[in-house]
Amino acid sequence: MTLRTIGVEEEFHLVDLKTRRLTARAPELLAELSDTYVAELQRCVVEMNSGVVDTLEDLRAELQRHRRTLVDTAAKLGIGVVAAGAVPLSVPAEMQVTQTPRYRQML
């Protein structure tokens, strides 16, 4: 029998806690976090990558731990974290793209 494993990638929007609008402060936030968290195309989004685990119980515990770390670290910077399928309260002209070769090519 083959042992199955699972891992998860999640993306989170960053919002200013005062204005409730998206904020392009991912680089600042990522500087405070481990490499479990990475930049995304837009600078108002961060990605979290779980480790590879053997059970759903382990995955749940890992996701809760990483989400709590992200939320707590962001709050210290005045940033809120939103898990949403659509961009909350965005103004397209204000969107900033992460400056990596991959993302520049995508644009």
**Head-to-tail CA distance between termini:** 45 Å
Stretches where pLDDT is under 50 for at least 5 consecutive residues are: none
- β-sheet strand percentage: 15-25%
Instruction: Give me the side-by-side strand order of the main sheet.
Output: 2-3-1-4
Gyration radius, in Å: 15 Å
- What number is the mean pLDDT? 89
Q: Count all strands and give the number.
A: 4
Helix content: 25-40%
Overall SS class: alpha+beta
**Large-scale geometry:** globular
Order of helices and strands: EHEEHEH
Question: Main beta sheet: strand number and arrangement?
Answer: 4 strands, antiparallel
The number of helices is 3
